[in-house]
Specification:
This protein has 7 helices and 10 strands. It is an alpha+beta fold. Strand 3 and strand 4 form a beta hairpin. Belongs to the MecA family.
């Protein structure tokens, strides 16, 4: 489980399939009000406090992005902090109110910190998944977008390779198209292997 700060009041967790399996949690469980999901959320908040000094009380918005074959990304945004008087009135169970939304994606999007990592990933993944995908440049990083309409085992192998060079991203292709620059509009992995040997 990795956590990073996105802004003063917003953090992002990446939960791998292994993180979920270790706790006996299925993707569908995130919606259910069950003890192991509460335990997971408490562990996440503890890690956020330890690593980022990010403390939560009061209203919290939780966005869950289910990533095919990768796990999920959880974005936690805290609302205003309660006043000391309001804090006294809260009991332990009311320390935070959750508002959870879930989005399932039919795409896998990986981000790479530099172009060389993208090129290396393209060379390694192209023999496995063929000439597919689209590449965008956005905020100084490179994004490879793959549709998940390929055989699941092929997709799993591709994700495993891409994870060595980049990381799963929650930026949507809509944002990349709108605000980023299109590098390859189609067959990106084929283009990478053709032009960068």
């Amino acid at each position: 489980m990795r956590v990073e700060r996105l802004s003063q009041d917003k953090i992002r967790f990446f939960l791998s399939m292994d993180d979920l399996m270790e706790r006996g949690i299925e993707k569908e469980d995130i919606w259910r009000d069950i003890p192991k999901v509460h335990e997971l959320f408490n562990d996440m908040m503890e890690q956020a406090y330890q690593e980022l000094d990010f403390e939560i009380s009061g209203p919290v918005a939780v966005e869950v992005f289910a990533l095919p074959a990768q796990g999920m990304v959880v974005v936690v945004t805290r609302g205003r902090l309660p006043s000391p008087n309001e804090l006294d009135e809260l009991d332990g169970d009311d320390m935070y109110e959750l508002e959870v939304t879930l989005e399932e994606s039919d795409q896998v999007i990986f981000q790479f910190h530099d172009f060389e990592h993208l090129v290396q990933a393209g060379h390694r993944v192209q023999p496995l998944i063929g000439s597919v995908g689209r590449v965008y440049a956005y905020r100084g990083q490179y994004f490879l977008v793959l549709d998940t309409d390929m055989e699941n085992q092929t997709l799993q192998k591709g994700i495993a390779v891409l994870s060595e060079f980049g990381e799963a991203s929650t930026v949507t292709e809509h944002v990349l198209k709108e605000y980023g620059k299109t590098i390859w509009a189609q067959e990106a992995t084929g283009g990478i292997t053709r032009y960068f040997s």
